[in-house]
Specification:
Layout: H1 7-14, E1 18-28, E2 38-44, E3 48-53, E4 62-67, E5 75-87, E6 93-101, H2 105-127
Length: 129
Amino acid sequence: MPSDTPPVARERRDYYRINVSLPICLQPETDTVEGQCTEKSVNLSAGGIGLVVNHPYQANEILSCTLLLPDLAPFKSSVEVLRVDPIHYPPGTYRLHARFVRLTRENRELLVRYILQFQREHLAKHYSV
C-alpha cells in the first residue's frame, strides 16, 4: 500500500540536515560557462539544499549546483527546485528549497561523509569536556 506522505516529506526525514556556510554556485543547467561560487549559509542534507538566493527560480526548474566542501574536490550535482518563498527583508531575496537529482551513489556518500564529519567536529567543539 503506497504511503499518503508526499515523497519530498518522506525524503526530508531520510537524511540528517546541517546548517553550514559554504561557497556555492547555482545556475541554470543550460548555462555552459561555470559561474562563480559565493559563500552562503546552506541547509544541507544528502537529499537536498535550502538557501537564500537573489533570483526567483521556478518550481521544477533544474539547476546546476557546485559546492566547495572543505578539503574535498568540488561537489557538482543537479538540483530540482521544489519551491521558492519570497523573503520580506532584504527585498528581492527568496528562500530556495531544492532536492538533488541524478545524484550518483558516490556523490551521495560523499555528502553523507561530509555531514557526519561536520557533525562530529561540531559536537567535539561545543559539547566535549
